[in-house]
């Protein structure tokens, strides 16, 4: 009867090897989840920076087109972005017959984030019609 009680107590729990194996599997699963989460957060940060850069470029382009010629052609904003505006005469677009004094200008705004090792310049372009200044 004593051997029967001893046999039951041994078979009612996990062995040390089974517990260690379960912990190792759990550790691998958690490491995989951590890796995926870390990459996702990194991509989210990159997407957020790119969105902010494109919003800055769009705002500068709109401001330049709306305030021409008062706005400077380059500068920095809050020490976070540098920007440059470039104009070029558009070839291939002809002025209308009603007003031959209109010229078409392609305006390109390039924005680059300062102090960032992941900085890649972002450019937005718009074509606008402009009459000569009188």
Low-confidence sequence ranges? none
Strand content: 15-25%
Cα-atom radius of gyration: 32 Å
Strand element count: 4
Q: Can you tell me the overall shape?
A: rod-shaped
Helix percent reads: 40-55%
Keywords: Membrane, Transmembrane, Transmembrane helix
InterPro entries: N_methyl_site
Transmembrane segments: 12-36
Organism: Parasedimentitalea huanghaiensis
Short description:
This protein has helices at residues 2-11, 16-67, and strands at 74-77, 81-89, 103-113, 122-130. It is of the alpha+beta class and 134 residues long.
Notes on the structure:
It is a single chain. This protein is of the alpha+beta class. The chain has one domain. It is built from 2 helices and 4 strands; from the N terminus they run ααββββ. It has helices at residues 2-11, 16-67, and strands at residues 74-77, 81-89, 103-113, 122-130. A 4-stranded antiparallel beta sheet has the order 1-2-3-4. Strand 1 and strand 2 (81-89) form a beta hairpin. It starts with a helix and ends with a strand. The model has no long low-confidence stretch (mean pLDDT 85). This is Prepilin-type N-terminal cleavage/methylation domain-containing protein.
């Amino acid at each position: 009867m004593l051997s029967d009680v001893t046999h039951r107590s041994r078979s009612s729990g996990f062995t040390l090897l089974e517990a260690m194996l379960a912990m190792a599997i759990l550790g691998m699963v958690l490491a995989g989840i951590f890796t995926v989460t870390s990459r996702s957060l990194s991509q989210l940060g990159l997407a957020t920076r790119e969105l902010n850069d494109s919003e800055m470029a769009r705002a500068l382009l709109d401001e330049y087109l709306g305030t021409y010629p008062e706005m400077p052609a380059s500068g920095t904003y809050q020490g976070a972005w540098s920007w440059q505006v470039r104009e070029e005469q558009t070839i291939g677009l002809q002025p209308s017959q009603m007003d031959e004094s209109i010229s078409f200008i392609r305006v390109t705004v390039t924005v680059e984030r300062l102090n960032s090792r992941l900085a890649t310049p972002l450019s937005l372009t718009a074509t606008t019609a402009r009459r000569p200044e009188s």
